[in-house]
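Ticket closed. Logging final result for EF-hand domain-containing protein 1.
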Amino acid sequence: MEKEQFRGPENPITGDLMILKTAFHRSQTLSYKNGFAFKRLPTVGIGRERLHVNQLSQAELDELSNKRPTLTYGQPKQAPPSDFIPAHVAFDKKVLKFNGYFQEDVPISIEEHFRIRQVGIYYYLEDDTMSVMEPIVENSGIPQGKFIKRQRLPKNDRGDHYHWKDLNRSINITIYGKTFRIVDCDAFTQTFLESQGIELNPPETMIFDPYTELRKMPLRMYVTPSDFDQLKQFLAFDKKVLRFYAIWDDTVNMFGESRRFIIHYYLADDTVEVRECHERNNGRDPFPVLIKRQRLPKKTVEKTDTFPTCVLEISDQEVLEWFTAKDFAVGNSITLLGRSFFIYDCDEFTRQFYRDKFGIDNFQPVDVKTRPLEEVTQVIPPYNGYGFIEDSLQNCFSLIPKPPKKDIIKMLENDRKVLRYAVMMESPNPEDRKRRFVLSYYLATDMMSIYEPPTRNSGIIAGKFLGKTRVSKPGSSPDSPVYYGPTDLTIGAMVEVFGRRFVITDADMYVLNYMESNSGSFPADAVQAMRAHFAPRQAAAEAVKRLDQSEPDQQELEAAVAETQEHLQRHNFFPDGDMQAAFLQRDKDGTGLLDKADFLELCDCFKVPADDPLFQKLIGLCSHGENQIKYPTFLRAFQC
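Final structure:
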């Protein structure tokens, strides 16, 4: 029958039944209203078909559910059920309050062994949360107020929480390891618990803190008859103050210092004030008062060592004797609150008061000015020979030595300026006399180094003979050495380097140029001797230059030199040692020409590939005749 309901008319072509219905869903019967779920009757049938069954409304259904069989005197009347009210609405702003206390141990006090702290325990019925509040007592010194914030408090280790059914009077509850004693509750709490069928225990009396009650008791006052009128003292000595100048010397301690103070003694009430004397640019904050105006104790009872002076004030019970005017005197030390002050002077009013009152006339001021420290002559130990004397000397000036200051201007002006000399060793050994060296003097740092060029079949390992260092002259004192300078390096001069003697036989052309440009720093005869030494060589260079200019293939030679320089730069070829010094040393006459055999021997020493076609071309262009080579032109290719 259900399937026939959805059949349509027959298809006139095929004779089959046509299905016209396409929606088969059911309507929803569950819904939410004001946050609560409820059910309702469907309004339409399956596929949104209209329901033709007689349906009852919700009000009619409720009436039928509450309708009873008709009795003799009619149908009984029954009140409709009350609406559902959630807990957060029914118990809104309804709180149960219990009064209680807990006991706290005080292990560091000799006057109280425990402390009773009163609290109020609040239970919020709307969400079953609790909080513990401690009433604030003024000047108690204890953080009070909210003791435990509002939350659900755990009851045991099984995860249960405290409920209002667990609370009663005259019981103990433990919250976070602290036990609270509930002694009473307010009227609303009592009415609520009794309405829920809970039998309340009788209330207890609140326990108060014994030390606080002791503090509230009035002190026993003993008035001793005295002939001295306090009011008379105030009227007689009002605005009369004794002024003393004192110094506090704390230099015996680490980082201690000496500071000046002014001590004021007020005759009106026997109080003392200490003020600090600030000096300009002393680096201290402007707080002039060190000890505010008060009565200062001179002798106290024994229990003052444990007396809490940071909380309580010192009274006459703790003090045996107070400071008076007779305790202050010029030239004596006085201890005020544990700090010793030396009184070295006072003002004129104070002097006159002591003359009239005590008959004292000795007011000679004490000189407390800081005397300058005696200068101790520093003794420099002798030089031990290790390292530079300037570096070793820095160890005598500071615990952490600093590098010696350098002449930066001189280093910048003479950067990469080197004077090179050809030297020979002077030795009784004939083999050493044949050795030739190149001495380099660095103008930026006044250091020198010695290099030995390689010599074939000499049996001596060539290379660095002396690293860069400063060499002192023979006979100079180790404490104040005199080092070799450019003026000491001339042709024929002898240089003694750590026990070895060297004679200067030749120099670089740059040496002559440097001496001529700085002729004021060199003797005139030294400059003239250097010019005479280079005169033949300059004539030879001019002759070679004229030969080069007379050659018809000068452009081809320049191109070959440029091509060779590019080849050397591309292959990062750097010759070992100073090639120019070696060639100049082999050229005895200074003509600028060398025999081809000697030229090839030097090329082999400096690992110059003379067999390479490029170098063969350059050597051919530098040839002069059949067996001579113009080596200055060839060396231009190595000046990259």
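The radius of gyration is 57 Å. No further action required.
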